[in-house]
């Protein structure tokens, strides 16, 4: 009954002691775990700090390496840009030379064509397909060929300039991007843990679809450099070709121009010689005409001089025919008169020499007219070749293009 009346909240001293011991053990255990946790936390903090510092240092090195890579490629691109710009400027100079050469070919071509046109005005036998005409036709053909060649080369040059400018544009765009990237990485390199006003960047860790691999990045700039080198080499080769073409065309033009001029000089000399010979023949014909005219006059005078004796002889015969009867005798007088009349009549009737002389005179007149016409033909030819053509060709001067 007494046990039933005890307070149920009372514990046994042993329980109290046990409880205290448990509290101590539990506290010491908790303290031990806490100490371990603190130690682990410090270890973790130290480890994270070291890892963070190592990672940041590694990133800083990679940023520096990246900056050096960008600087290297930027320098490469700058060098290629400078080269392609210089080469384009030099090629533009070659283009100007081509244009001047092309323009310089037009006047000689027009003059050669005018010479051919003027020489169509030659007349008669002088309208001949002579050496001058052959050389002029060759010169026209050569000049037309040169103009076609220069025109084609000019088209090639314009296309090469376009290609050079395309390569220059690619280099400039790449350099612009490199400059922007270097500026950004320079900013990143300057950032430190103590940089003020830094903020968290949302969605910073992401890879967008327009990211390229390092290999693609190198390949992109390398392609631009190779294209610039290729177009520069093409431009160098084209300039060498242009120099050769301009030198050869100038030599060809001078050569054919001189050949035409020599042909003109030779032809003018030939025509002058022919004209001189014709003038000599004309002088000879005119002298012969004067002699023949004198001869005809002498023949006519000789015939006229025989009219008196003929009349006397015929009058005597007429009178003696009226002698009467036996007096109408065929005596020596009658015989002599008959002979005289026959002789004079025969001599008067021999006018074939006069007719032949007159025929020869007409022939000489025709020959004189023919020679005079031929001399005029030669004078016309000389005027065309020596005055119109050769004087016009004096203005042709072919410089080195």
Q: Kindly name the structural category.
A: mainly alpha
Total number of helices: 6
CATH fold category name of the largest domain: Ferritin
- How many β-strand runs? 0
Oligomer: single chain
For the biggest sheet, the summary is: none
Low-pLDDT windows of residues = none
Q: Tell me the number of structural domains.
A: 2
Which CATH class of the largest domain? Mainly Alpha
Proper CATH architecture of the largest domain: Up-down Bundle
User: In what range is the share of β-strand residues?
Assistant: under 5%
> What integer value in Å does the Rg equal?
63 Å
Query: How would you sum up the global shape?
Result: rod-shaped
Helix content: over 70%
Order of helices and strands: HHHHHH
Organism: Tyrannus savana
Protein name: Tektin
Pfam families: Tektin (PF03148)
Coiled coil: 354-381
Features:
401 residues, mainly alpha, Ferritin, 6 helices, 83% helix, rod-shaped, flagellum, Tektin, Tektin-like
Description:
- The chain has 2 domains: 62-191 and 216-266, Ferritin (Up-down Bundle), CATH 1.20.1260; 283-395, no CATH class.
- It has helices at 13-119, 131-190, 214-305, 307-320, 332-349, 352-393.
- It has 6 helices and no strands.
- The protein has 401 residues and is an all-alpha fold.
- The protein is rod-shaped and about 240 Å long.
Strand and helix layout:
Blueprint: H1 13-119, H2 131-190, H3 214-305, H4 307-320, H5 332-349, H6 352-393
Keywords: Cell projection, Cilium, Coiled coil, Cytoplasm, Cytoskeleton, Flagellum
Main location: cytoplasm
Coiled coil: 354-381
């Amino acid at each position: 009954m007494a046990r039933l009346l005890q307070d149920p909240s009372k514990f046994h001293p042993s329980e109290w002691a046990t409880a205290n011991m448990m509290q101590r053990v539990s506290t010491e255990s908790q303290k031990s775990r806490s100490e371990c946790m603190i130690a682990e936390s410090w270890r973790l903090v130290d480890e994270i700090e070291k890892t963070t510092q190592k990672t940041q240092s590694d990133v800083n090195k990679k940023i520096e390496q990246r900056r050096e890579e960008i600087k290297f490629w930027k320098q490469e691109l700058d060098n290629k840009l400078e080269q392609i710009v210089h080469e384009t400027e030099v090629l533009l100079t070659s283009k100007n030379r081509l244009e001047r050469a092309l323009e310089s070919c037009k006047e000689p071509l027009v003059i050669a064509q005018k010479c051919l046109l003027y020489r169509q005005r030659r007349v008669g036998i002088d309208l001949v397909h002579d050496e001058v005409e052959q050389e002029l036709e060759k010169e026209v053909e050569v000049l037309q060929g040169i103009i076609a060649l220069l025109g084609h080369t000019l088209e090639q040059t314009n296309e090469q300039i376009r290609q050079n400018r395309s390569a220059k544009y690619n280099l400039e765009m790449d350099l612009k991007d490199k400059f922007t990237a270097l500026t950004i990485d320079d900013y990143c390199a300057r950032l430190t843990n103590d940089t003020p006003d830094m903020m968290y960047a949302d969605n910073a860790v992401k890879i967008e679809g327009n990211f390229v691999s390092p290999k693609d990045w190198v390949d992109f700039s390398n392609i631009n450099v190779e294209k610039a080198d290729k177009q520069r080499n093409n431009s160098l080769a084209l300039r060498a070709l242009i120099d050769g073409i301009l030198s050869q065309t100038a030599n060809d033009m001078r050569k054919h121009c001189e050949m035409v001029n020599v042909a003109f000089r030779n032809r003018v000399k030939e025509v002058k010689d022919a004209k001189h010979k014709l003038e000599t023949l004309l002088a000879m014909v005119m002298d012969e005409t004067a002699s023949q005219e004198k001869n005809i006059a002498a023949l006519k005078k000789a015939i006229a001089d025989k009219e008196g004796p003929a009349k006397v002889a015929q009058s005597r015969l007429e009178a003696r025919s009226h002698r009467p009867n036996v007096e109408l005798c065929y005596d020596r007088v009658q015989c002599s008169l008959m002979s005289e009349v026959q002789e004079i009549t025969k001599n008067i009737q021999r006018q074939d020499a006069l007719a032949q002389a007159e025929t020869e005179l007409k022939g000489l007149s025709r020959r004189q007219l023919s020679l005079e016409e031929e001399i005029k033909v030669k004078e016309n030819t000389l005027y065309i070749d020596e005055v119109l053509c050769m004087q016009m060709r004096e203005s042709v001067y072919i410089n080195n293009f």
